[in-house]
Amino acid sequence: MARFRETVRTLLRERLLDAAFERVAEHGFDKLRMAHLAGDVGVSRQTLYSEFPSKEAVGEALFRRELERCLVGIQQGLDAHPGDLRAAVEAAVGFTLTLARRNPLIRAMLTSTGEGGLLPYLTTRSAAAFELATTALGTYVAETWPSIDPVARDLAVDTAVRLTASHVVQSAASPEESARRIADTTVRVALSTGAERLPAGTARP
Amino acid sequence: MARFRETVRTLLRERLLDAAFERVAEHGFDKLRMAHLAGDVGVSRQTLYSEFPSKEAVGEALFRRELERCLVGIQQGLDAHPGDLRAAVEAAVGFTLTLARRNPLIRAMLTSTGEGGLLPYLTTRSAAAFELATTALGTYVAETWPSIDPVARDLAVDTAVRLTASHVVQSAASPEESARRIADTTVRVALSTGAERLPAGTARP
DNA sequence: AAGTTGTGTCAATAGCACGGACAAGGCTGG
DNA sequence: CCAGCCTTGTCCGTGCTATTGACACAACTT
């Protein structure tokens, strides 16, 4: 019955996150003021607090929304190469690294120096991001490459996600080159049997 | 300060008009029920009455919104042919007649038989539509053809608008053919001096 | 040490949507 | 013809929610 009020709530949330995106992208998260954010949307500060219980919640929601948008591109990159693990991973990772380099929010997150920044969401508190990305890549691999050994598959997925995250926060080369290297590594891990002959002098438990 | 509530109000208005458009286009204006309209958007009937004081106001707003959309196309048709009066009028009139033939709202307005229909807005109560269309065409002609005699210009603009309205409610031929004829008539009126020699036997006051 | 700024919380007020009910008028079927 | 039903338009009481203004608290500045 009250369907309209629900859409208003989501609209308010979107507007708040839009305004937060603008301010954070320009001046960083620590320079963001709750009063300014509420004023941008044309709402009282308490209304903002009724939607987001704290400033930290704003940052978390902001990061989650951007992450979900990113995951859409990752999923598209995977789906564009069904059956070709290397190309799929390369496309998905390349998209992620390119987006991370261009997205002003992520740039602001990485360049923020202060204590109350958003950087933890990309590093120490990135469990949610890891989980989502790992699930997306894991289901893709499990569906299109069911023959791969599950142990190797999980290792490969985890490797791809963690390497990508590493390159997001500290890119060594171009996104394309990094994506190529990560895809190469992922394929190597995925196709390994765990029983290869090791070079002489290498111990294995 | 309260900018968000304002956008919510306009959003509600748009949603209501969207729902009204759907229902009117399908079943006609007289079959539209205020309770259904409110239910479609997910709002109480009283909220609907707070936005539109009467059902007639809904129909009026619905017609005005459609008219304004139509005027955008008319303006584009005029602007696409600067300096060529015949082509500009033909494009604008052709767009209008084609839109009127395809638009389900206008079709429903014309086919409604009942007393409480929307037809008056296209005929007896079409002062607003005439005014807007006349202004658009008038400013175009005045800007791009300043050399035309003002009397002939006003006559031509009025003729074009009224002929177009006539073809909207009672189309004789295809929109293209009608547009061509109306444009021809408009140009003849616009370029007339009011002092032509009349055929023998014709009286002039 | 005092002032400033910003976060988070609380209480009182005002506004708005809601549900329920009502009168008035028109339509329909018996 | 008339009784019932539907629909429009209006009113009022209620409840939810945003707003306003204030406050405590912490960190930083002067």
Task: Give structural attributes.
71% helix; DNA-binding; mainly alpha; disordered C terminus; 205 residues; elongated; homodimer
Q: What does this entry look like structurally?
A:
With 205 residues, the first copy, chain A, is mainly alpha-helical. Helix content of chain A is 71%, strand content 0%. Chain A has helices at residues 3-27, 34-41, 45-51, 55-79, 85-102, 104-111, 127-144, 150-169, 175-191. In chain A, helix 7 crosses helix 8. The relative contact order of chain A is 0.11. Residues 201-205 of chain A have low confidence and may be disordered. The interface between A and B is medium-sized, with 15 and 14 residues. Chain A binds a DNA duplex (30 and 30 nucleotides) through helix 3.
